[in-house]
Amino acid sequence: MYNYKPSNITDTNISGNATKFSPTNTNKDVEIPTVGTSSINKDVNVGFSCDKENYSTIISGVNSSKHLHLQNGFPEALTVDLIPATRKGNPTFGNKTIFWKTACNVRKLRSNFKEKFSNFSEANDQSLLLRRDQSPIYLQFNPYIFKGYRPILTTWGCIRSLFYLHNETVNIVTHALALMYALICLPTLLPWHQIQIPVLPYCHVVATFAPWLGSFIYHLFMNHEGGCKTYMKLLKWDIIGIWITQTCGAFTTIYAGTACLPLLLCYGVRFMYLMFCMKALFAATFASSAWQRRTSFLFLLLMRLFVLCIRLTTFGGGHSQALVHVIMQEMWSVTGAVISATHVPERWLPGKLDIVFNSHNIMHVLVIFGVMHMHWAVEKDFTWLSEGGCIP
Fold first, then answer.
1. Least confident range of 52-66, 139-153, 291-305, 319-333
2. Are 163 and 148 in contact (CB under 8 A)?
3. Are 51 and 185 members of one domain?
4. pTM of the predicted protein model
5. 192 and 244 in one domain?
């Protein structure tokens, strides 16, 4: 059997004796044995027309009325081994027979081969992982990840990538597990029987699911065949998931932290935070770079730190046991963002952390820690607010 690389291959005439043809840019000659004279009335032309994506094999001259055109998209790793053998006495490649049929059977041949090729391709997605320079430009966002990139895949191909290792596996699995955990624990996520606050608990539940769902879908389908347009839509959904967490989830800490302030100041700070949330949503979804997306949430972070400082004073509100969780929430989130932005540690070990332990993997785990602490802080604050607190 022989593997053929995409290249231009010259036609060769076969007449009487075995003839060789040489694919360009290939060092191996392939011999096509003699075809019996009883089957052929004149020279048989075997032509191989190759381009970057597919091979076309044309066998003509079998009879004046018979002509076979095989065009089945042979990839580099596919061999002539998959061409079925039929009758003896027909031309062969190595130990496999190439046969000709009348034009009415050619469509059936193409259909069967296309099905076999599709199954072969889907079953070997892992073997087709790409280097960074082979991946689309919009997926080359980390210059220190050299390999393990998935090729462009269909929707089903992206789903199948859950079951083999590539450089997005850790990113997908970490937030998929977080999503599953949140779904399983939904009935006991909050002490519902103790909470007397309207609306906010349901906002918190949405904030608990949103980042994992958006991130999971984004990382799973980022190499979808829809191309850059589909990728940008998925990225926006990922950003919206983050925004929901920082708006609906973190707003409870703002609400509790300002509960003991004078009425006008209390509602003023809350309203300002919501306005910053709307500004952040617009800036993040229409950002033209990763740094713009990160800095679009900067004012939200500053507002939360401001309210955290209020909580440390006698004017601050909120459950006393929630304070440490509020601090840890911000610490994990900021640490993860800095690690992801600076590409540490793969910056120090280029090409060594392509699959696991790179900055984005670490950031995913730290974000989970941050949301866990946010949930524990909110749980305490809900209890405090339900018991009276300093609600103005």
1. 52-66
2. no
3. no
4. 0.69
5. yes
